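BUG: 3D viewer hangs when loading the predicted structure for this chain

Environment: internal workstation, default settings.
Expected: structure renders.
Actual: progress bar stalls at 90%.

Input used:
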Amino acid sequence: MNTPNHLFLYGTLMRSDVSLGTRGLGAMEALPAGKYLRFVCESQVQGMLYDLGSYPGLKEGDGLVKGEIYEVLSPEAWPILDPYEDFFPEDEEGSLYLRKPVELMDEPGHAWTYIYNHEVDESSLIHDGDWKRYCLEEKF
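C-alpha cells produced before the viewer hung:
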C-alpha cells in the first residue's frame, strides 16, 4: 500500500456548522494545520466510535464511522496534528492515539486517521458512528 496523502477526520477537527450551533466540532479552525489541508468530501471507514467526554475515539471494529476526508497538502501538517491528537511516534505505547492508514468505505483508497490507543467503556459506544449528529442531537 502506498503512503496515503489524505486524512480521515471523525471528531472535533471536523468542520463546524455555525448555523446549527454545532459544539464539539471545528477545532481545526484554531489550529495552523488547517492551511495544510483541503476538504475533499464526507466519507466513512470501518470501526467503532466512542464518546470519550469532550471528544470521540475510533477503535477497530465492524461498524461504520462517518467523517470527512482532507487532502494533506504539506507534511508540515503532521507536527501540528500529531501533538493535538497526543500521538508521539517515538512513544506509541504512551500515545493517546495512533496515526494509522485506513481503507475508505465509499471512496477508493486509504487515508490516515487517528485510532484511540486505550481501552474504552462499551457503554460509551456511539451506535451510528456519527460524532457530528451525536453532538447536534445528544451530546450538547
